[in-house]
Design goal:
The protein has 195 residues and is of the alpha+beta class. It contains 3 helices and 10 strands.
Length: 195
């Protein structure tokens, strides 16, 4: 599944820095490292320097993630983290820390506490139940309302009004965001890596 271009090692690779963002750019298939499974209120994050999962926080309310959540390797968003991914239309929970190939269907433009924190929207690439979904619009109006509600309220008990969903866009805009975040990673983060 993962074509890691590294020699075998007795040390664990940090997949955030070992895998490319795209598995197949033409088909919009990306590598994604799962951080949070749908239905959880625990927010796990990958430690950028080591690649291990850390419990970042327990959700501020009973509002659970309505989708699986993860990060794209070798990307760097404006908020100082790898680019985020929402994996939707999942039938079974995905294990945090696992690597999946996801197909991009859109992007949600999001501001969190005044910072750009866009969310790529994707489906599992090898799940036939999602083959018919080619754009976030295929998920329906209610999905968009639920997603917007989640992001604008997930911190409401601690920091009201800090999350603002701006707009949703299709796969072409999402691919552009991924490319920009890949360029930012190579310019801003990759020079800090030790060989």
């Amino acid at each position: 599944m993962a074509n890691i271009k590294a020699k075998p090692s007795k040390y664990m690779l940090n997949l955030l820095h070992a895998l490319p963002p795209f598995v197949d750019e033409e088909k919009g298939v990306i590598n994604t490292i799962v951080e949070v499974s749908a239905g959880s209120i625990n927010k796990y994050e990958l430690i950028t320097e080591s690649g291990q999962l850390k419990l970042d926080r327990v959700g501020y309310s009973s509002l659970a993630y309505p989708f699986t959540y993860g990060a794209i390797p070798m990307t760097w968003d404006y908020d100082g983290d790898p680019l985020d991914v929402e994996i939707v239309n999942i039938t079974e929970p995905l294990v945090p820390g696992s690597l999946v190939e996801a197909r991009v269907i859109g992007v949600m433009k999001f501001i969190d506490g005044g910072e750009v924190d866009d969310k790529i929207i994707a489906v599992l690439n090898d799940d036939k139940r999602s083959d018919h979904i080619t754009s976030y619009a295929d998920l329906g109006e209610y999905w968009e309302k639920e997603t917007k509600y989640y992001w604008e309220n997930y911190k409401a008990l601690k920091k009201p009004g800090t999350g603002v969903v701006e707009t949703f866009h299709g796969p072409a805009e999402a691919i552009q965001v991924i490319k920009e975040c890949t360029e930012r990673y190579h310019k801003e983060y990759a020079p800090k890596l030790e060989n």
